[in-house]
Amino acid sequence: MVKDRSTTLRRVLAVAAGPLIVKVTVEVMLGYVNYFPPNFDSDFLRGREGYFFGAYRRAFYPHIASGPVALGFGMVLLSETFRRRFPKWHRILGRLQTANVLCVVTPSGLWMAYHTSTGTTAAIGFAILAILTGTCIALGWRAAVKRQFAIHRRWMWRCFLLLCSAVVLRIIVGFGNVIEVQALWFDPAASWASWILPLTTFELIGLKLRRKSRSLAPSVSAYPAA
User: b/e string for 32-54 if b means 16 or more Cβ within 10 A?
Assistant: First the structure.
């Protein structure tokens, strides 16, 4: 029963969050016209002209290319239907996703964190986010190799939620703009909240489901075997 509830919850989240993730990601990608060539009057690149053409550029372009790919692959890989119908493609996409996140998304995000425009507090948050994202997918891959698939799925869910921080951040900042928040602490706080809130929610729900599973175990084992 607990497993059924967990599966139902994932499906509800997918139905509710999937279109939103796609919508925000597409809107972000439409803004890429400001990056080819770089427009330093655009919101994200404003003030970066002094260091953009160095190592930052070599991190920036791979990051904005690999990020949407990681989100798209993540949505497909977390689909139970896709995994069951196309197990071979699930493994292939999983390898590509792991390589993309470990070799491109994480290192480029870590480098860009150093140059964040919203202060040291936000920079630390983005750096921790990059490290955690790489760690989660590495541990998820390790669990899959050991055929510990339940553990594998949990790590991959964590990784995906961390990847979704880019989407959550834009939602939080957009909401802040609507209500006209002017406080200097808002952007740094949003950079942390964008990944802490989804990850904490996931862990609390998982903890609750595991507790229910343990509480049901004695009553189940009380019945004699047929």
Answer: eeeeeebeeeeebbeebeeeeee
